[in-house]
UniProtKB/TrEMBL annotation, chains A, B:
Belongs to the gamma-glutamyl phosphate reductase family. GO terms for cellular component: cytoplasm. It catalyses: L-glutamate 5-semialdehyde + phosphate + NADP(+) = L-glutamyl 5-phosphate + NADPH + H(+). It is found in: Cytoplasm. This is Gamma-glutamyl phosphate reductase. The gene is proA. It comes from the Bacteria. Catalyzes the NADPH-dependent reduction of L-glutamate 5-phosphate into L-glutamate 5-semialdehyde and phosphate. The product spontaneously undergoes cyclization to form 1-pyrroline-5-carboxylate. SUPFAM superfamilies: ALDH-like (SSF53720).
Length: 419, 419
């Protein structure tokens, strides 16, 4: 599609989204919930259609030689479709932040001010192969009163269309405008560019996918972006760490699932910690490749040589950079230099050291005696997440419904003129 | 200055600002307040030096033929310097948002989560002729724990240097790092470009000045911007408006000060409102040029013809576009099409109509029976303001200390690994 055509397409979709957003903003919570429940039911009812569309995507992807991991992300079986519908129903059960009064102020002149949560407006979601994002992200945006413009990957287009058609049919039957959740009908890159340039039309873009996608979105966007590029997370085993806890948390933080953004990528170990050999041995035995300098190799001979680039590498794999440090200040300085501001943890029995770490480490999530793998909206009790943000404005860490809202100031007077 | 030199300059200043910001983030509220009070005193002590520097700026500006309004904005007399110092002392007395716990969550697995306010980090302020912004903005940023990089206009450079030198001397004597508030030493446009492109180095930019400056910043910035371009505000006189209140509020909203962003630019009058002639006559007698169509001219003969462009024009002058409408829906549709999302007001005795207006008009500030000229951080009880934002993310409306903070998630565990 030509660039100008893409811009026109996105401008048209955005205008319809804005109209839908105005209607959504005025919908009571229970009406939004009811529409989402109808959407969930429509997904269940369309399971066969969705699975047939998905089979075509999978066949095309296999023919194109896509990797096993990508095929797995693409594939929708009956269980995954049911889980997708359950996810939409779960969003319907979340507490709606819209309308909440953040603050009330009565001024001496009698003006009554209140700061009230309202939807953001029009949210763009740009994602890759997982077709469940169509339902998840659409449901989260709509529950917070926003219209969504979804642009999924070409490899999942048939699946996305089927999921989208079912979801919107249900939402509309439940009383939402049909433009509440729109799917961009084309999958070329120009449409992404048009979305990223749609300042004033799209209020925020959330990229969901690999680093290449997020980097492009962050580099090109003229609209605000909610995202994280890297999860270069650290776990620091302090001298006063409990050895058994340190071993369990290091193993869990690295090895529970190596491919998620909350996985630890660098282990910082205090020279004063007594359990280093046991921790490193446990990691090596669990199949983790350790990278460290000669001092680390002397402790754990299965360690391979570390390069400077390792400290800045998000492996998303069973690989761990290991560094010995002298005390919390060196650990925090390393995190400040090499971290991505996502999630960093300290393991220690020393509460004063822990509190200093929690206060001084400047990351979206800081943890004491817990696995970095807990960095997740569900685990934080948010019920779901649209993504995790390492940006410093608007919303930070796991973002769910509240991060999809903003506020307005309402001023009620009795005829006050300003002196 | 060459572009590469500007980039290096801003990169160097940003790195020093980041170091200062880490120290500021850890300063207790009382220590920040004490340093600001010392800064206020230093401004008072340096009043003669500042006035001498300002006299040079004013003389150069007069020689360059600057207009009277610009000269007035530039000029610092003893009273304005005292007011500037008082402003810094007033910021020192504000409640510090840093450290406030926004939310606490205890998870079933025992993890204790808290969401805690922290400074944003490094804030860039780009402003024009008013030298008091050097002190005001520097103080607000520092009180919220942020380092500030200030870039003032060339016409005020001597004044800005004198104000900055005194402020920083006081802040440093009071215990703040000297890099907490930095002034860009050059005033060419390349330095502004370098600040706007400093993604990851500067966390947010706030432009303070005319529309040309704000438009350039919004168009070029690769860093988040907190600003408003226009204050195209409406006052809607509903059919059920009290005629005397309508007259007073229309006069105040337009004429109290015509050059501020909270001034009303378009008056929407319901055809069912009985007091139209009196309101328009009062405005005309107060020296306001009225622009309207033949129907408006029939009510108030001093009205001149309105053009389509008027509905989208922020006059910032004693000029008012006037439109007759049939009911709140037409009024709200006009605001939705032509407003800038800054401040819009309804005057009515009908509470149900008012509440519908407050809910449906999608502006940063919506008002009922009050003058739009109250759109101001001081009037809102915020104690000061860094600016007013019409953006939809992070902060909206008047922004003071809280808008200069973000939050982080603190997770305290007892050894939890994620299942």
């Amino acid at each position: 599609m030509a660039e100008a055509d893409s811009r026109n397409l996105i401008a048209d979709m955005s205008a319809r989204a804005r109209t839908a957003a105005r209607l959504l903003a005025a919908m009571p919570s229970e009406a939004k919930s009811a529409a989402l429940r109808a959407g969930a039911q429509a997904l269940r009812d369309a399971a066969d259609t969705i699975q047939a569309a998905n089979a075509q995507d999978v066949a095309a992807a296999q023919a194109a030689g896509l990797s096993g991991a990508m095929l797995d992300r693409l594939k929708l079986d009956a269980g995954r479709i049911a889980a997708m519908a359950d996810g939409v129903a779960a969003v319907a059960a979340l507490t709606d932040p819209v309308g909440a009064v953040i603050e009330r102020v009565e001024r001496p002149n009698g003006l009554a001010l209140s700061r009230v949560r309202v939807p953001i407006g029009v949210i763009g979601i740009i994602y890759e192969s997982r077709p469940n994002v169509t339902a998840d992200a659409g449901a989260l945006c709509a529950m917070a009163g926003n219209a969504a413009i979804l642009r999924g990957g070409s490899e999942a287009i048939r699946s996305n269309r089927a999921v989208h058609a079912a979801l919107v049919e249900g939402l509309a039957a439940g009383g939402m405008p049909t433009d509440a959740v729109q799917l961009v009908p084309v999958t070329d890159r120009a449409a992404v560019g048009a979305m990223l340039g749609a300042a004033g039309l799209i209020d925020m873009v959330v990229p969901r996918g690999g680093k290449g996608l997020v980097a492009r979105v962050q580099a090109e966007a003229r609209v605000p972006v909610l995202a994280h590029l890297d999860g270069l997370n650290h776990t620091y085993l302090h001298a006063a760490a409990d050895p058994a806890m340190a071993r369990e948390l290091a193993l869990n933080a690295k090895m529970r699932r190596t491919g998620i953004c909350g996985a630890t990528e660098t282990l910082l170990v205090d020279r004063g910690f007594g359990g280093t050999a046991a921790v490193l041995a446990a990691l090596a035995e669990a199949g983790c490749e350790l990278r460290g300098d000669g001092e680390v190799q002397a402790v754990e001979p299965r360690t391979v040589a570390v390069a400077d680039a390792d400290w800045d590498t998000e492996y998303l794999d069973a690989v761990l950079a290991v560094k010995l440090v002298d005390g919390p200040d060196e650990a925090m300085a390393h995190i400040g230099r090499h971290g991505s501001g996502h999630t960093d943890a300290i393991v220690t029995r020393d509460a004063a050291v822990a509190e200093r770490f929690l206060a001084q480490v400047d990351s979206a999530i800081v943890m004491w005696n817990a696995s970095t793998q807990f960095a997740d909206g569900g685990e934080f009790g948010l019920g779901a997440e649209i993504g995790i943000s390492t940006g410093r404005l608007h919303a930070r860490g796991p973002v769910a419904l509240e991060g999809l809202t903003t506020y307005k100031w309402i001023v009620r007077g009795t005829g006050q003129a300003r002196p």
